[in-house]
Amino acid sequence: MQFVLRVLKALALLLVFIVVAGAAWLFVRPPELLRVGDGYAAKIVCSNVFIAGRDADDVLHDDVQAPGNPLLRLMRVSVDRGNGHVTARFMGLFAPSYALYRSGLGCTSVPDADFEAAANAVPLDVPAKMETNDASWPQGEGVGDPDRKIAALLGDSALAGPAMRAIVVVRDGRIVAEAYGPRFSAKTPLIGWSMTKTVNAAILGRLMLDGKISFDDDHLLAQWKDDQRARIKVSDLLGMESGLAFNEDYGDVADVTRMLYLDPDMVSLPANSPMEAAPGQRFRYSSGTAVLLSRIWMNRIGNAPAAFSYPRDALFSPLGMTSAVFELDARGTFVGSSYLYATAHDWARFGQFLLQDGVWNGRRLLPEGFVGAMRTPTAASNGRYTQGQAWLAPGGSNTAFGLPEDTFWLTGHDGQSMAIVPSANLIVVRLGLTPGWLGYQPHTLLKAVLAALPQARAPQQQAESQRQAQPRP
């Protein structure tokens, strides 16, 4: 019996040693995967609390923990509203990561805990929030009586998809139906994830209209001047054909998660990526590419305060996107890959803007042919992706789903989508938190809406739509 007790005591001591050693390891050198998880938790909670006005516990549960990753269920967060700080820790103890709210510019990950550097990276004077009005959408927020047939479709959970948060259907320039998930409304700013890429491309297009940048510009970054990356053109980046290596796998610590949650200077990783192919020869979907585009257009503006205000001054204000918040990294580069928050009404405004070929209230804001590039496939993507940071065939071809050939898409992580169908004068925005493993396809919703439209467009309208979908000049 004494022998057994000695063995049990030794095992208990060994177990204590393992626990203490493991805790010390997690405290001193936490694995990158835990740091990514905490960085994600801190950033998502920060943005949704300070931009969307949501409850921190709801965001932690619904947005961070519920989608399925078991490690994320062990994340704990604390919110310091007075200083705009959010801290996340694994099990409330380990691998701390931080986010900082900067008024008017949303939240930023601060993986190095250097809040002073993050605060000093952006201007202190932020423009006042744009005011909304009650005029009819898109000039204001007023919405008339819905189309009952389409509204009924939005109430079908199979078509709306799991964890739908907002759907807005626009036909002939007016909102004909909308639906919202529990605790969400037309006033809730929602993240677009990779739909942000297309908005970022449009901001670059605004600079093109002013002659400050072009599709054919190369020698885009000073650090590329002495190697083959100097040959990369703006058009290569817009089409995801730069030839730069980049790992977009979200299942582990990859380039994309390292860039978003471990590096305060998000430009650094993609700017230092090696070439794996000649520019224009290989399609590689890359969030790093979109961040590079942000830094390139900001560099072309030259003046930092003007660059920080450019998205608002050049795009959001003219379009009346009063809720739009375009977030930056901790060193002052817009995260053009992922971090734009806006209400579903404002996302729909951007879709209407593209449907109108970059013209708003009679004023051309994008060069002629720019939206055409957004609708023109690249050869290297086998027709799936376009010359302007948009999709022609996410999840398969449009014709395979029985959709009009001129349909093009903005899509984002966790089920964000915007379908634009010029031949039907139609936009369908769908936002939610719907992980890809659930298998939801927004194509089915779009097909049902198209079938419910009161009438088809006239042949001359369809011809005009096809005329606009020409490659860039």
Summarize the structure.
The protein is α+β, with helices and mostly antiparallel strands and 473 residues long. The protein contains 16 helices and 14 strands.
Write structural notes for this entry.
- The protein is 37% helix and 15% strand.
- The chain is α+β, with helices and mostly antiparallel strands and 473 residues long.
- The strands form four sheets. The chain has a five-stranded antiparallel sheet with strand order 6-5-14-13-12, with helices on both faces. Strands 1-2-3-4 form a four-stranded antiparallel sheet.
- A hairpin with a 3-residue loop joins strand 2 (85-90) and strand 3 (94-102).
- Helix 2 packs across helix 3 (56-65) and helix 5 (148-154) packs antiparallel against helix 15 (442-452).
- The longest helix is centred in the first third of the chain and has 27 residues, at 2-28.
- It is globular.
- The protein starts with a helix and ends in a 5-residue tail after the last helix.
Assembly type of the chains comes to: single chain
- How big a fraction of the residues is strand? 5-15%
Number of helices: 16
End-to-end span in angstroms? 89 Å
Low-confidence stretches: 16-28, 458-473
Count of individual beta strands: 14
Gyration radius, to the nearest Å? 23 Å
Physical arrangement of strands within the biggest beta sheet: 6-5-14-13-12
Main sheet record: 5 strands, antiparallel
Order of helices and strands: HHHEEEEHHHEEEHHHHHHEEHEEHEEEHH
* Helix/strand/pairing category: alpha+beta
Helix content: 25-40%
Rough shape? globular
Mean pLDDT comes to 90
Keywords: Membrane, Transmembrane, Transmembrane helix
Domain Beta-lactamase-related: 166-431
Transmembrane segments: 7-28
Protein name: Beta-lactamase/transpeptidase-like protein
